[in-house]
Design a protein that fits this description.
This is Protein kinase domain-containing protein. The chain has about 200 residues and is α+β, with helices and mostly antiparallel strands. It folds into 2 domains: about 60 residues, Phosphorylase Kinase, domain 1 (2-Layer Sandwich); about 130 residues, Orthogonal Bundle (Transferase(Phosphotransferase), domain 1), CATH 1.10.510. It is about 30% helix and about 20% strand. It has 6 helices and 11 strands. It has a 4-stranded antiparallel sheet, covered by helices on one side. A 3-stranded antiparallel sheet has the order 5-7-8, with no helix packed on it. A two-stranded antiparallel sheet has the order 6-9. The protein is globular. The two termini are about 35 Å apart.
């Protein structure tokens, strides 16, 4: 959190000074992607401070915190723009005052063909990642549909981490075998089928 000179409250994301140049560029990738969006339900970028260390990304503040409910239209908007978020989860959906914003575009990629290939599984949210990305490192804009299903599961499980009782490796092995998280008691059958 922070305040601009004219007393406007802002959200501030800081890049640690000890990062390599490549890591700093990766950090700034989030701002580059956010700059392209001016949508009510996506975090608004206010600015970037790069002249001194540490580097800051300045965004609009969103009151509240993790929001365990989500509307499908935001995912369609990202898909229409060939944006591959790669970290869609309840922890990255912030809301308040009847507003929901998708945040944390740090792992996102904007791809003309709607496909992004990654080498390795470094720092990806295994339990939220689509099987084709886990198995082959290929993300498509449609990969967000899998993550959206997991986000719905989180919502109707009252914020429980997906694949409870399993490590990331165990969850990945189960997904490779075709397993999908079981419905919680709070989840209506039609919602579970949508997942």
């Amino acid at each position: 959190k922070g305040t601009l000179k004219d007393k406007i409250a802002v959200a501030v994301k800081m890049c640690k000074e000890a990062l390599s140049q490549e890591q700093k560029l990766t950090f700034l990738q989030e701002a580059k992607i956010l700059k392209q969006y001016d949508h009510f339900n996506i975090f608004k970028l206010i600015g970037v401070c790069t002249q001194r260390q540490p580097i800051y990304i300045i965004m609009e503040p969103v009151p509240g915190g993790d929001f365990l409910s989500f509307l499908r239209k935001e995912m369609l908007l990202l898909g229409d723009k060939n944006c591959i978020h790669r970290d869609l989860a309840a922890r990255n959906c912030l809301g308040g005052n009847n507003v929901l914003k998708i945040s944390d575009f740090g792992m996102s990629r904007q791809e003309d063909g709607g496909v992004y290939s990654s080498s390795g599984l470094k720092q990806i949210p295994i339990k939220w990642t689509a099987p084709e990305a886990l198995n082959y490192g290929r993300y498509r804009s449609e990969s967000g549909a899998w993550s959206f299903g997991i986000l719905l599961w989180e919502t109707f499980s009252l914020g429980v981490c997906p694949y409870p009782g399993m490590t990331n490796q165990q969850a990945q092995e189960q997904v490779e075998r075709g397993y999908w998280v079981s419905a919680s008691q709070q989840c209506p059958e039609d919602v579970y089928k949508t997942m």
